[in-house]
Amino acid sequence: MPELVNRPTGSAAGRSPMGRNSTSARFGGGDSPNSGIPRRLFLRGVAAMSGVAAAMVLAEPALAAPGEARRRREHDPTLYDAIVVGAGISGLAAAKSLVAAGRTVKVLEARGRAGGRIHNHPTARLGLTTDAGAEFIGPTQNRVDALAREYGVEQLPTYDDGSSVFWNSGQRRLFAAQPGLPLDGGVIAALPVVAEIEGICAGFPVGEPWRHPRAAEWDALTWRQWVEQRTSVATARMVLDLAASAALSVKGDQFSALYMLNYVASSTDENTGGPSYVARLLGTAGGAQERVCNGGAALIPLRMAEALREHIVFDAPVRAIDQAGDHAVVVSDAGTFSARRVVVAMSPAISHRIEYIPALPERAALCAGYTMGRIGKFAAVYERPWWREKGLSGQAFGNATPTDVTFENYAEGNHILMGFVSADEMARLDGAPEQQVVDECIDAFAGYFGDEAREYIDYSLFRWDDEEWSWGGPVATSAPGVLTTYGHALRDPAGVVHWAGTETSDYWTGYMDGAVRAGERAAAEIVAVSR
Ligand SMILES: Cc1cc2nc3c(=O)[nH]c(=O)nc-3n(C[C@H](O)[C@H](O)[C@H](O)COP(=O)(O)OP(=O)(O)OC[C@H]3O[C@@H](n4cnc5c(N)ncnc54)[C@H](O)[C@@H]3O)c2cc1C
């Protein structure tokens, strides 16, 4: 498992993208041996060698494999039309559009794989494919749907028959998976609030929440405070908190109400609108969880990356972007590249681990106000779908721990229950022994569906918080006050640097579809200024 060196809760030193002070001292004086690169960037390129700390940088030359140090100092002399930083589905969508528009493109990806938060992860024993990250696609998610079709990725309906489980503080209630709402008294008390949200979403300035007439009022509140102003019923509050945290993997007291209202309003496309934003966001049939991909959603970015393979450099974490005159010099561990335009295609919560020269104070302030959700996915494999035999859908939600939302999953014809480990529970279990997490998740499944859950034959566990190049998931949320103060810096280009990543999307922000839209929008910005 990768070492967790850069979690937002870590020390300031731990979050530094490179130990440049010590490195500058080490290499101070004398000329850069690579005459093609400005000296300050050469220093940063060397600093980028380890990517963790100056002390390690100093030790690096002795540790490097033969040829490795030389490779890392490489300077690609080409002036590209665009460099895309990040080969998640957003960066890939940007690169695809730019290549299609005839632009020269390089994609620099930190990991040794494409897909970012979309990842096929094998089960522990049998090596079955499971979706460790994004998996569901639903109506109005037209851009990712189009890519799935283009790359021949079959979509299958999420199993949605029988009864689902609503868990409220130890009490288990069954309700019909369709339409999917437990009509418990407390839940009914939440419906007027849901109706108010629906009203707000109609006509909402999607993607630009700071333009809403009540933006200042709502951005001053957390989601939980906003809900508490509207209902005093404990179950209604719990359900509305859970609705948010199930989608975002952050508790309702940790993000702005304005952020959440924009997130709900964005769960559509340009042509569809409301009503039913909330149902579309949270629902299975007719909602964002409607379909899964045969073979895993990661087939989409993997096939995109295969088509773009000559353009992608893997194991190339970008450490610095220097806007020198009318172009940018991008320093990565795999070398230094130059381009007329750059697309940074990742969450704002991690995009400011890159050093920008000159500094971008507004964008830095925006990014400091964004935090990744904390999330993991657990999947248990069974010999037969025993929950179906009991008339259960395999879906559960409520306030049980550690998995608060479950679904039946599909993988190569096997029978799988999948549970999200979210927010504070994931934080508690980030560093726990794997078997402890497995046992706790199985206990939760047994509570939801029955003791047959204990007879699993295989499992998969993936903890996104421990991923150095994600810092969590599924999406970054903004704290109160951030969007109304710095929201414009989310998408406004900074010189020749453009911003993509799902968090910068208008529609379906936080989803694969939003990521594709954001990448295509950033590419269109570049094409528009470089005809
Ligand atoms: C557990 C989980 C479940 C989810 N479920 C769904 C779902 O069912 N449906 C859905 O639509 N969405 C879902 N999502 C959200 C979805 O995965 C994201 O919205 C989408 O994948 C974001 O894509 P992106 O390209 O914007 O960002 P990312 O996928 O994060 O891509 C960013 C890329 O940049 C790279 N990178 C980071 N830093 C650097 C650097 N310094 N230099 C170079 N490269 C760098 C990363 O390695 C990564 O490849 C889920 C996410 C998670 C984690």
TrEMBL record:
GO terms for molecular function: oxidoreductase activity. Substrate binds at residue 420. Its cofactor is FAD. Keywords: Oxidoreductase. Pfam families: Amino_oxidase. Residues 89-526 form the Amine oxidase domain. SUPFAM superfamilies: FAD-linked reductases, C-terminal domain, FAD/NAD(P)-binding domain. Residues 1-34 are annotated as: Disordered. InterPro entries: Amino_oxidase, FAD/NAD-bd_sf, Flavin_amine_oxidase, Flavin_MAO, TAT_signal. FAD binds at residues 90, 109-110, 318, 503. The keyword Mitochondrion does not apply. Belongs to the flavin monoamine oxidase family. This is Amine oxidase (Flavin-containing). It comes from Rhodococcus rhodnii LMG 5362.
